[in-house]
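Milestone M4 deliverable, item 7.
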Amino acid sequence: MIYRASHHFFLYNFFRLYSVWKTRRCFHRVYLDCNYTEKGLPILLISNHFSWWDGFWAVWLNEKVFHRLFWFMMLEEQLKKNMFLNKAGGYSVRKGSRTVAETINYTTDLLSDSGNLVLIFPQGEISSLHSREFIFEKGIEHIIRRCNNPVHIVFVANLIDYFSSPKPGLYMYVREYTGEDFSAAGLQVEYNRFYAGCISENLKLKDV
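Output delivered:
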């Protein structure tokens, strides 16, 4: 059995407000480079994963841009340590277990509703901020192929820079995936290309 998510009125709304407040408070700027067109479809948000912050930033992005009910997949061992997140849209995956199929089916069900956004970290674990290439787990391919309805796939890359500020700046890049290759390998290639482009763009930015 997996831990299925719910949205407790108080905990979910606290999570939303806390994410926006915490991001504003701890970063001297939030730079958003967003190429997104609303299509009225469920959203599968694919993001890099290098810190405790990543889920909170995705909530911030959802509040500012997507305006969907927020769901996210977490490793079961991490969710057990923070079970309040289960009441704020977090559900479990246990790698190498038979329950992975249940998690995939559950995610597919969530993506049948146009009012939902599901956040996935497809590399399956936290990696270094300095990673430049991401290896996608096969699960993302199974999720997309099992969907019986169109799904809006959106890439996001989160980067950090300080420049001359004592606080870091958060630099978020958002792009729609418009390709037709939904294999894990194909998505991996396109995401890595996207991520490399984000780094190049970030290097061009000036201090503010």
